[in-house]
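Q: Sequence in, structure out?
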Amino acid sequence: MHKKNRDTSKAISRMKYIPALALLLCLPVTAGETINNTEGNRILGVWATEKAEAHVEIAKGDNGYKGTIVWLKEPFYIESDSAGRTGEVKKDTENPEPSLRDRNIVGLQIMEGFEYGGNDRWINGTIYDPENGETYKCRMMLTHEGALKVRGYVGISLFGRTSEWTPVLKRVPVESD
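A: Exactly. Output:
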C-alpha cells in the first residue's frame, strides 16, 4: 500500500513540470517571432525623402509595413503652376484613376505591403509616385549609418532608382515647472 502511494506522489510531483516544459518548448518560436518583429519595426517612424521635399511616416498595417506622406516642403501649388492652381493644396492629379485625383498629397498612403526579410531589408512592397501617377515594386534597406535606402523598380530590381531617406528626429517636449 505504501508503494502505491509513493508512485502516485511521484507521478503528481512530475506532473507539476509539464506546464513549465510546454512553455520552454514554445519559447524558441515566440522569442524568434518577437526578435523578428522588433528588428522589422526598426523602420517605424518619420523619414525625410532624399531632397527633404517630403516626410513619409512608416507604420505597421494589416498587410505589412506602409508609408504615408505626412509633410511637404511645398504643400501648395506655387505661382508658376501652369494649370492655374496657385495657392491650392497639392492633389494627386496624376493618378491614372480619375476618381482618386482629388486626394490631398499630404495624408496620401504611397507605400504598402512590405514584409521584413531579415538582415535589415524589407521586401515585396510597392511605392506610388504622385508626381507621375505610377506604382512601382519596392524594397528597402536600413544602412549601418541609419539611413533608409528605398528602391523603386519595374520588373526586376536592376531597372529602378534608389533614394536615400534620413530619419526625422522627434522632438521630446520639455516639461516646465
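The helical segments are 2-15, 18-40.
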